[in-house]
Amino acid sequence: MSDRLIMKLRVVGARLTTPDVLMLDLQHPKRPALPAWTAGAHVDVMVAGGVRQYSLWGDPEDRGRYRIAVKREAGGRGGSKWIHDHAREGSELHVSAPRNHFGLDGKGGRYVLVAGGIGVTPILAMARVLAAGEADFTVHYCARNAAQAPLLDELRAVCGDRLTTWFSQEGRRLDVHTLLARAAGAELYACGPNSLTAALETAIAAQGFPADLYHREHFAALSDADFVPDSFEVVITSSGRKLHVPADRSLLEVLRDNHFVRGSSCEIGVCGSCECGYVSGDVIHRDAVLGVKARASRLMPCVSRARGSLTLDL
Amino acid sequence: MTDETSVKQIEAFAHPAAQAALGVEGGTTGWKGELLHIHIAPAASYEMEELTEATCVAGRGIEGDRYYLGTGTYSPRPDVREITLIEQEALDALARNDPPLQEGPVVLAPEEHRRNLTVRGVPLNHLVGRRFRVGEVVLRGGRLNFPCKYLENLLDRPLFLPLYNRSGLNCGIETSGTIRPGDVIELLD
Q1: Residue A282, strand partner residues
Q2: Domain boundary, last residue among A49, A78, A99
Q3: Cβ–Cβ pairs < 8 A, chains A and B
Q4: Which chain B residues touch A if contact means CB-CB below 8 Å?
Q5: Cβ contact, residue pair B45, A5, below 8 Å
Q6: Architecture of domain B12-22+31-187
Q7: How many domains are contained in chain A?
Q8: Measured on CA atoms in the order B85, B89, B95, B100, is the torsion positive or negative?
């Protein structure tokens, strides 16, 4: 599930939902149906000089179009600015088939969804699916004010009175401790800026909220500024070949140098493109994608490393 | 990545597989096949696009294709990839789950298999080390194609085993020219 097909899609709708968030509707110029997806999925969008991930916020039942929302990130790497400047009705965007690292658990029961700002996109798709399935769910939406809350009207239409808004300029701030106390036993899904998820995670740890009921989507890879990479050795299972990964190079780069073809996209540990299996080794996982269970046998070679020797399932 | 030095191709008959097959008796003769579809993709992972005609450039590939441009998944590795072919008969067999290697039939549409040319009536496995023509273009069979997990990942379908030994033929282009669906395909020598 690493490589995804890239399609040249046509922009059939482009309008601002807030002053800095552009909603785009994308269709395939030659086919009526796009690849299927499930709530929580994202697509890769090719931008000048790179790739950016955007969650799909539309209806998974609607195979005719993908709907994304792009926030202009002034302090970003320029990808969102490029989209804002280039995407017009009729223009072409190169978009991958969807991928989902943030899927809704199908166990039923109760759901509490928390969105912060542009993090509303996957949450809106989830709310739509839960509402259609008549599930027991509530949504908490944090933003500065209504005017700067992307897709607020769409979310209201889907959720009705199951939506609670927390607009800081109105003096309303989400109290994560109260939220967690009320969410006891529910599946908790969160997507938003790191400040929001960090507050949630601190409270989760403090209150003993079960970690397996908590699911988050990452906007940016976890930056651990104190991390000092070391060199390590790699053994390729199929051939017994040995490779050396120097401290200043990624495992992905070394694999590529040695003709192990790996797809990749973000190269910062958030997209899951370059995922690879390993047989043994003391792995230092530095990605933001893999769950605890997956980490026992999978790693992301773009950011993750090992202590000593690592045996790769290649 | 469009400068020509980044495109590393092995001349088809210089590949060890073709070297071993050259001059060895065998292979079916007297057949006459047809070109059904032409597909190219601009870069690795991009959807294949169907063409109504294509320009084949000797020693390079099909104009606009990832292996012509050097933007393919395997472009960094020197190989025979100027133009790749697959048999419609193999795709038909997959679609009827023959032999029954997987859960059920695998339907691979012409734009999905990622080979450039879909052909009918052409015994591709017999053409390593052989020259044959597609319309006005002369091709050289360099090596058998081999299925890869990359395609499986891309399409999220079991393909590796079903395609084994019928994954197509990787060729070099000996004589440049334009090809179109409907072109006749014939053995030269």
Answers
A1: A307
A2: A99
A3: 36
A4: 43-47, 73-74, 76-77, 150, 153-156
A5: yes
A6: Beta Barrel (2.40)
A7: 3
A8: negative
